[in-house]
Design brief:
mainly alpha
Amino acid sequence: MGQPVPQEGEASVIVSLAEAAMHMYTAAIDALPFPDDKKFHTRADVVLTGMRKLRAALTEAAGRSRSSPAVIVALRDVRLRYDKLMTHAAAAPGSSLGQQLYATRIEAKLSAQEVANGAGLRADLLDDLEAGETPTVEEAAKVTGLIAALGGVPGTEHHEHHESEQQHDEHHESEHHESEHHEHNDESVNAG
């Protein structure tokens, strides 16, 4: 026997609950502090955890043999919003390796299984990392290598550009001070 077929009323209730939850999550997302705020990741992680649960429930409902198109649409909306927030969190300072991998994987249009196979990792580890688990040193090295191979974390290009500009400015400033120091010493020698 297959899974029980959801009644039309059941699908309607599922969709209504999903819409109510997404209304609250959207308000919470809109109220998040700026990404460089120390509270950003703590608050974003709470929203992401709730959205993962909602996504799992809708995935289960959509997997039934006669699921309603409304359930599929609700699942799509949750996944799109979740992906957007994860990508935003991954690009923020202090993001987790799991967030970075998720955003990179989504940008590359790869499934968790494909990424796990390509990196020599367990597929369930990717879910664990996404949920905030800390990888081993070996797992972290594989994940970091894979992120780099896939082109890096989307949305962080401006961070890298800004950091390299900052390093260039600091180097230039250091050279300038060193040059002034040498000039000062030369003047002292010439004066003596």
